[in-house]
Amino acid sequence: MPSAPANSQASTVPLCVDLDGTLIRTDVLWVSMRLLLKRNPFYLFLIGGWFLRGRALMKMKIAERVELNAALLPYHQPFFEYLKSEKSQGRMLVLATAADFRLAKTVADHVGLFDEVVASDGKTNQRGRNKGHTLSAKFGRKNFDYAGNSTVDLPVWEQSRCAIVVNADESLVARARRIAEVSLVFP
Q1: What confidence score (pLDDT) does residue 12 get?
Q2: pLDDT on residue 10
Q3: Residue 147's CB: how many other CB atoms inside 10 A?
């Protein structure tokens, strides 16, 4: 259960939702990397080479080679229920993640709540400042709410209208409060 009531104007701005550690309690990069290495451990050498060419490229190359079963991912259930409630009230939901677009789309399609997906594309790693700039360019600075779970999300919260902190410790909640209006906290 969240620790504060939602803002009454919430439905007028998009709610952008991080995937790893927020919507789900794991990281799709690590899940997909394990799937790939389980199939063939020698991919470890290719992964290293891809990483040297950039995180976004590495994520794309891994995503091209695995089939993620989104139904098996561990969803953060109280937060998921909140998202369903927001969607039922007509709010636009955007899955905004550093994961590769292919994997993010698989999750978004499975969940069935998201209107749009913003994700890494093989060139741009949609993490931290990059994600904040992308969302600000798309919706306007301070014209979207953002749900995240880690210090990497601080630059995104800084550009958002309201921060929703999910699955994080009190020190991160305090840091988020110093740079943004924290409207909800999901422990």
Answers
A1: 85
A2: 53
A3: 29
* Predicted local distance difference test score (pLDDT) of residue 18: 98
Given the structure tokens 């409060």, which residue do they identify?
A: 177
What are the angstrom distances between the C-alpha of 130 and each of 3, 86, 107, 155, 167?
29, 26, 21, 9, 22
Calpha distance 68→70 (Å, rounded): 6
pLDDT at position 103, please? 97
Given the structure tokens 């991080």, which residue do they identify? 18
Tell me the two tokens of residue 141.
Answer: 């600075």
Cα distances from 8 to residues 54, 86, 89, 104, in angstroms, run 41, 11, 11, 29
Q: Residue 184 has what pLDDT?
A: 97
Low-confidence ranges of the chain (pLDDT < 50): 1, 3-8
In three-state form (DSSP H/G/I as H, E/B as E, the rest C), the secondary structure along the chain is CCCCCCCCCHHHCCEEECCECCCECCCHHHHHHHHHHHHCCCHHHHHHHHHHCCHHHHHHHHHHHCCCCHHHCCECHHHHHHHHHHHHCCCCEEEEEEEEHHHHHHHHHHHCCCCEEEEECCCCCCCCHHHHHHHHHHHCCCCCEEEECCHHHHHHHHHCCEEEEECCCHHHHHHHHHHCEEEEEEC
Q: How far is the C-alpha of 131 from the C-alpha of 11, rounded, in Å? A: 21
